[in-house]
Amino acid sequence: MSKPPPALQDLAAPEGVCYGCGCAHPSGLHIKSHWDADGKHVVCTYRPPDQFTGWPGLVYGGFIAMLVDCHSNWTAMAHHYRAEGREPGTLPRIDCVTGQLNLSYRKPTPMGVELTLKARVEGEVGRKSRVICEVWAADVLTVTADSIFVRVDAAQLSSQAASRVETTA
Ligand SMILES: CCCCCCCCCC(=O)SCCNC(=O)CCNC(=O)[C@H](O)C(C)(C)COP(=O)(O)OP(=O)(O)OC[C@H]1O[C@@H](n2cnc3c(N)ncnc32)[C@H](O)[C@@H]1OP(=O)(O)O
């Protein structure tokens, strides 16, 4: 069997420490996002481990939000790279953060099933991207999300956050 192509995370942030998507997180989820063959969607497959059960037999909703957050953010970043005609991983680096995360839980999401997240950028204005994400459990659409991601200078963001904490401590 041929090796799958590298994921967006492997290409653009191999040193990432995000719990959901960081390649270098020691015990994180390590989700992987790829452009779909149609070139219009970014997809991710993930089977939630047993500890993320909510109601018996169902995936905990907050856990689904975590998957949607990371995957939608990578969809926004992939879109920015493409809009600039660049491959993920080329410099200067592109980073986005979540501005708004809006999920609609439409059907229960069963445990024990591989989930498929399918996302696209629906509209972009300046630094903001609106990302629509669907979560499928086999052929059942269980969750939809309509969220906003804002492009940032990540180094500046981290240092600002650290200095605010020092100021208020
Ligand atoms: C390894 C790399 C990959 C890691 C992936 C991690 C995936 C996980 C993603 C996350 O969990 S990120 C963490 C959760 N999010 C945050 O902590 C963000 C906190 N918010 C902020 O730091 C600031 O609000 C933000 C950087 C988003 C914006 O502040 P800025 O001062 O840079 O921007 P500004 O306020 O000038 O707004 C720029 C535009 O974005 C819009 N905007 C800002 N915040 C928004 C918001 N929250 N929702 C919607 N739109 C927002 C704002 O209206 C404006 O729109 P216009 O250009 O149309 O005028």
Look at the structure and name the CATH superfamily.
Hotdog Thioesterase
By CATH reckoning, the class would read Alpha Beta
Q: How many E-type strands? A: 7
> What is the string of helix and strand elements?
HEEHEEEEEH
Unreliable residue stretches: none
Report the structural category: alpha+beta
- Mind describing the biggest β-sheet? 7 strands, antiparallel
Radius of gyration: 16 Å
Mean pLDDT: 94
Spatial separation of the terminal alpha carbons: 54 Å
The proportion of residues forming helix, as a percent range, comes to: 25-40%
Q: Please report which band the strand proportion falls in: under 5%, 5-15%, 15-25%, 25-35%, 35-45% or over 45%.
A: 25-35%
The number of helices is 3
Kindly identify the CATH topology.
Thiol Ester Dehydrase, Chain A
Describe this protein's structure.
- It is a single chain.
- The protein has 169 residues and is an alpha+beta fold.
- It has a single domain, classed as Hotdog Thioesterase (Thiol Ester Dehydrase, Chain A), CATH 3.10.129.10.
- The chain has helices at 8-12, 61-83, 154-168, and strands at 34-35, 42-46, 95-100, 103-105, 115-125, 128-137, 140-152.
- Strands 1, 2, 3, 4, 5, 6 and 7 form a seven-stranded antiparallel sheet that branches.
- Strand 5 and strand 6 (128-137) form a beta hairpin.
- The mean pLDDT is 94.
- It binds decanoyl-CoA.
- The site of decanoyl-CoA has 21 residues, from helix 2, strand 3 and strand 7.
